[in-house]
Amino acid sequence: MASTSAQLPSDSSSSSNLIGRWSHDVFLSFRGEDTRYNFTDHLYTHLLRSGIKTFRDDRLTRGEEIQHELLKAIENSRSSIIVFSKNYAESRWCLEELAKIMECRQEFEQIVLPVFYHVNPSDVRKQTGSFGKAFTNHEINWKNKVQIWRDALTEAGNISGWHVNEGTRYESEYMREITTNIFKRLNYKCLFVGENLVGMDSYLRELISKLKIQSIDHDVRIVGIWGVGGIGKTTIAKAIYNQIAHEFDCVSFLENVKEIHKVKGGLHDLQKQLLHDITGENLYISNISQGAQVIQNTLQSRKALIVFDDIDDDLKLLEYLVGVPHWYGRGSRVLITTRDRNSFHKVDDVFEIEGLNHKDALKLFSLYAFQQSLPEEDYKILSNDVIHYCQGLPLALKVLGSLLRGKRTSEWESELHKLKNIPNAKIQDVLKISYDELDRAQQAIFLDIACFFKGEDRDFVSKILDGCEMVAKSEIGSLEAKCLITVSHNKIYMHDLIQEMGWEIIRQQHPKDPNKWSRLWNPNDI
Q: Does 97 participate in catalysis according to the annotation?
C-alpha cells in the first residue's frame, strides 16, 4: 500500500526518478487491516509534518490486478518505507508492491527502509511463521509469482531497518527515528538539473551500470563522461549525483573546474571547496601542496562521491585536485566530465555521450518551441528541418527552440535561411571552446578538415597534410580526443554544427572579403 492521499501520478505528469525529478519523496507500503489506523497512520503524519511528501494508498477495497498508477507511484518515489506486519504476505497487492519496490532498488538505486512491525525479521527473510503460512495458499493460486515474491521478501528482510516490538520502546520514538533518518537521506545537497529533460534515461542506466554502486568488492571506481560541448555531460552528471548521493558518507560536485582553475588562485579555491564539501568546515590550507595532502588524508577514511565537472588535461589539476585512486576511501566513486579524452588518467571506464535520436530531439525541441511534446501541425516540416540541422545536439535544440517560439512560419523560414550563412552565436560560443584550446598546428588541421576533408579517408588526409609539413596522424588523434571530429571505418567525420563553426572562424578573418580568407570551400565565394 502506498503514499499520499493526494492524486496518483499519471503517465503524462509523472517524471522519471532517474533524472532527479520525483512525484513523491516516500512510497509507503503497508497491510491496511494491520496498521492503517495505528502505526502507519502515525508514521504518515510524522513524515508529512517534516515536509516529506509521502504517497499512501487510501483505497479500502482493491480489485484483482494491482493498479498501474500504483506501480508508477513507486517508480516516481525517491524512497520506499515497507511496514511488514503479521498479515502483510497474505496480500497479493502488498507482495506485488514489494516486488516493484525491490526492482526499483536494483535499477534506480531507490532507497528502501523496512519496518518490522511486531514480526521477526527472520520470518520475512526466510518466509516462516505467518509469512510461511501465507505462502501455502500462494503456492496453489499464484505459482508463477511465488518465486519473485520470495526473492523480494528475502532481499528486503536483509536490509537494515527497525524492529518494532511491543513493550520495548514507545512507538513515537520509532516515528521520530524513521522520519529523521529519511529526512537526512533525502535532503543532501540536491542539484538543479533543469527542466524539459528528454532522452536521458538510457544514458543514466548505462552510467549507473558503469559506476557499479552495489559492487561487493568496495573498490574505488573512477568513471569518465566524455562528449562534445552542449551534449549534456554536466546535466547527466548532476542527475546521477542526485540519484546516488545518499549512498555515500560525503559528497562534492565541483562545477566548471577548468574555468575556475584558469583564474589566479583557482586551484587553491577548488581544493578549499572540495574540503568544505567533505568536512563541512572551512579548513585552512596555505598552498596547493598542503591542500593535496589534506584532501588525501581526509578522503582516505570516507566513502565519497566526488564529481569533477569539465576538466582538461592540465597535469597540475590532475595531480593536486583529482588525485589517484588510493586517495579515496573504500567504495568511493569519482565522476569526471570533459570534452578531452586525454584528460582521463587511471579511469576504470569511459562513457561517451552521443546525440539524441530523431524522436527525442523532436520532443526536446518542441518543448522549447511550442511548450508541448510535439510540433504544431503547420510547423511539422519546418521543425524537422531544425532537427536535421541540430543533429541531436541538446544545446542547439534548446537554443533554437527558444529562439523560434511564438514566431510565424515565415519568420521560421527566414531564421533557418539565416542559419545557413550565420551560425547562432550562443551555440557557436559553446562549441568554440574546444577549438580555442587547440595549439596553432591543431587549429590549422581542424580548419582544413572542416573545409576540405570531411568524409575522407584518414590515411589519405594524413598523407596530404604531412606533405604540408604537419604531423597529421597525432594531431588528428588529438582532434578526435577533443570531440571535434570522429573517425569511423577510417573515415573522418565532423558534426555539421562544428563544421559550420570552422567556416565561421575563417569568415570572421575578413567578413566581407572572401579573397582574404585563409581557405575557400564554397565555389560561390571564389
A: yes
